[in-house]
Structure formats: structure tokens, C-alpha cells
Design a protein that fits this description.
By secondary structure, this protein is mainly α. It comes from Cupriavidus malaysiensis. Pfam families: MarR_2. InterPro entries: HTH_MarR-typ, MarR/SlyA-like, Tscrpt_reg_MarR-type_CS, WH-like_DNA-bd_sf, WH_DNA-bd_sf. Keywords: DNA-binding, Transcription, Transcription regulation.
Length: 164
């Protein structure tokens, strides 16, 4: 189909979300550059901190990533000494991920820069709109949404946001 016949360039929800994600990643990456982390690396450290010592599977699920993508994302953080992987004492087949002291310090260092980016986003977009956007996106990345999508059934309004 020639592009001249497409009236809504954002008709594909997936493409629109990916473009928005790439733009926000660029902006947040620039804000975080002084601490040497990307927004995705900061997210990994934050999810590990929140999870305590999550297994790779738990961390991948929390981040809505497959395990191979997670493994690629944590390699530079492990190389830089911000996290370690340890064999799970209860299930030797599983690996747990933990922040090191350097990782906790790097996450703390990134917080001020991240807060600046977050505040700028809310200034530009509006804090109420930003809050509503986070709720809508949490619904979209929820397990309930994925199940409804696979089944082709409507998701009741307001469901899935608890996954945030």
C-alpha cells in the first residue's frame, strides 16, 4: 500500500509505542549520561534493588523481557562490577542477581539525574497526563493484557494496572 494512502501515520499501535519509547529513551539517556548509565541499565539496577535478589526468570518477568535479552542487558553491568550472579542455593539450576556496593552507589548516583528527567517530562507533558499515561502503559504491559490479546477478548477498563 503506497504511503500516500495512509491517513493516520500512527495507525499501528506497536509502531507508535516503539517510536515513543525510542524518543523517551534518547531523552532519558542524555539526562543520565553524566553517571554513565543508560535508562535501560538504570532500570535493570532498579528492578534488582526492588527484587532484593531475584532469579533471572523473576527479573526477566518483572522487566517484561525474555531471558536472553536480559542476559545481554546485564553483561555490561556485571563487567563494570554493579551486579553479580550467584547460583540459587535452593535450586542450583537457577541464578540469582544481586547488586554490589558499587551497583547500589551507581543507582543512587543516577537517582538525581533520573529525577531531573522525570520532572522535565512532567513539566512538558503535564503531571496529570503523565500519571494517566503510566497507568495506561502499566495496563498494556500487564500479563492480563497479554492474555486478553492472545485470546482476542476485550480487557475490562482499568484492569491490569496493578501490575505496575
Amino acid at each position: 500500500m503506497p504511503s500516500s494512502t495512509i491517513k493516520d501515520p500512527l495507525v499501528c499501535n506497536g509502531a507508535a509505542l516503539r517510536k515513543a519509547t525510542r524518543r523517551i529513551s534518547q531523552l532519558y539517556d542524555a539526562a543520565l549520561a553524566p553517571c554513565g548509565l543508560s535508562v535501560s541499565q538504570r532500570s535493570v539496577l532498579l528492578h534488582i534493588a526492588r527484587g532484593g535478589s531475584p532469579t533471572m526468570t523473576e527479573l526477566a518477568h518483572a522487566m517484561v523481557l525474555d531471558r536472553s535479552a536480559l542476559a545481554r542487558n546485564i553483561q555490561p553491568l556485571e563487567r563494570d562490577g554493579y551486579l553479580v550472579q550467584r547460583r540459587d542455593e535452593e535450586d542450583g539450576r537457577s541464578r540469582r542477581v544481586e547488586l554490589t556496593a558499587a551497583g547500589r552507589a551507581k543507582l543512587a548516583e543516577s537517582n538525581r539525574l533520573w529525577r531531573g528527567a522525570q520532572d522535565r517530562f512532567e513539566t512538558v507533558y503535564g503531571s496529570e497526563r503523565a500519571a494517566a499515561l503510566r497507568v495506561a502503559l502499566a495496563e498494556i504491559y500487564s500479563d492480563e493484557f497479554a492474555q486478553a490479546f492472545e485470546q482476542g477478548t476485550p480487557l475490562p477498563a482499568g484492569r491490569g494496572a496493578e501490575a505496575a
